[in-house]
Specification:
Layout (H helix, E strand, L loop, with lengths): L8 H24 L3 H15 L2 H27 L4 H32 L4 H11 L4 H11 L4 H33 L5 H34 L7 H18 L3 H15 L4 H23 L8 H24 L7 H7 L9 H12 L4 H35 L1
Helix pairs in contact: 1-2, 1-11, 2-11, 2-15, 3-9, 3-10, 3-11, 4-5, 4-7, 4-12, 5-7, 5-14, 6-7, 6-15, 7-8, 7-14, 8-9, 8-10, 9-10, 12-13, 12-15, 13-15, 14-15
Length: 398
């Protein structure tokens, strides 16, 4: 029996190949100043077209688990950026900017789709989905740029808060659309929102407090600071599993956990560096498998809706930058902030699946459009983020 005949060898060959792809992509990205995320997703698109059906199904089975683990670690590390000093300096501007960008995006997308003749419930749902941003690719572009200034600090804060705001808007939209559709009060989505957000905060705070205790205990028990990587990963994954089981926002729970740890542990730097080493290989798999997701068959109606969504969401982000208050950011930074938030994935798909269950008559359209725009925004969105960062850097150097 040859190696290729042994099906158990194929997953190892695929995983090894995906990791080795980064040896080619990372130097190319650095040399030509191209976001790694876009190249990884492009590579995934090629792999997805080349794989036989059986292997394609295998990669799809992996994607859900790898995406959850990756987003959990990304969310946790994102939360650790929200230190007391950061919140003191940026909490106000981040909150104002996030709400302004989120509401502007929703209004532009919803009103635009309505003017183009699409149904109210479909327009409102897709507009709510448009609010969500992908933290993984946005943060990866920031890390690749190696910039650390006021703009990148605010951008990271917005990415951290954005998904929570998106969940609130989405839940309110589902509730309002349900009332308009059946002329009866529907409090299910609002109750689900309250359960999802409050449960995530409580769970993240509780598990974060437990990890703080472990970090402090090991630090004082051993002057050489024993590694707590295993305990950290265990608690992060446990938080994700409990969140999914009880239908909490697992990304928000992970972020709250990170906020608690970074603000209450005596020393978390070594612990965070260890998690960053784990994060990198997971990001490679996450983006390649995201690109390998299936491209659904499209008709003229869907293609038109996808194009309209892409244009309107981009316009909404861009316009939002002009509407930010002057005290929040200077003029150049305001113009760049909106387009830096174009990447979209993760929570957008979750919203689409939930909306499709509540409005089965629009299920195929919602899911198909969301998959298509997610792939496209993940492909080109990081390029806009990179462009915005370079423009800010040039402006600061002049």
């Amino acid at each position: 029996m040859t190696v290729m005949q042994d099906f158990s060898a194929i997953p190892l060959l695929l995983l090894g190949s995906m990791f080795l792809v980064s040896l080619i992509i990372s130097p190319i990205a650095n040399k030509f100043n191209i976001p790694r995320v876009s190249l990884f997703i492009s590579c995934g698109l090629i792999i997805g077209q080349m794989l036989p059906e059986q292997l394609h199904q295998l990669t799809q089975q992996w994607f859900s688990m790898i995406a959850n683990v990756t987003l959990l670690i990304v969310g946790y590390l994102l939360g650790t950026e929200l230190t007391r000093d950061y919140l003191k300096n940026y909490a106000k501007v981040v909150s104002i900017s996030t709400i302004a960008i989120s509401l502007t995006t929703f209004i532009v997308v919803c009103s635009g789709l309505l003017l183009l003749g699409f149904a109210l419930e479909l327009s409102a749902i897709l507009a709510a989905v448009a609010v969500a941003t992908d933290p993984a690719s946005t943060l990866d572009v920031i890390k690749q740029s190696r910039l650390n200034n006021r703009f990148t600090q605010i951008l990271q804060g917005i990415v951290a808060l954005d998904d929570a705001v998106a969940l609130v808007i989405f839940s309110v939209v589902l509730s309002v659309v349900s009332v308009l559709a059946i002329d009866e009060p529907q409090f299910g989505p609002l109750l689900h929102m309250a359960w999802e957000l409050s449960g995530a905060v409580l769970l993240g705070a509780a598990v974060g407090a437990l990890l703080v205790w472990l970090l402090n205990m090991k630090r004082y028990a051993d002057s050489q600071q024993q590694s707590v990587l295993i305990e950290s990963l265990g608690l992060i994954l446990l938080t994700g599993g409990l969140s999914l089981y009880f239908q909490f926002s697992f990304l928000l729970a992970a972020m709250v956990m990170g906020v608690v740890v970074v603000n209450f542990s005596d020393d978390s730097q070594q612990h965070l560096h260890e998690l960053e080493f784990i994060e990198q290989p997971l990001l490679v798999l996450f983006f390649i498998l995201a690109g390998a997701s299936p491209i659904l068959s499209l008709d003229t109606h869907i293609i038109g809706l996808v194009i309209a969504y892409l244009i309107l969401r981009t316009a909404g982000r861009f316009v939002a930058g002009f509407l930010l208050p002057k005290q929040a950011l200077n003029r150049q930074d305001r113009h760049c902030l909106g387009i830096a938030l174009l990447p979209q994935a993760g929570i957008a798909m979750g919203m689409a699946l939930l909306a499709s269950q509540q409005f089965p008559e629009h299920a195929n359209t919602i899911i198909t459009v969301t998959i298509m725009v997610t792939v496209l925004f993940e492909l080109v969105g990081p390029m806009f983020t990179s462009f915005a960062l370079k423009r800010i850097e040039r402006g600061n150097n002049n």
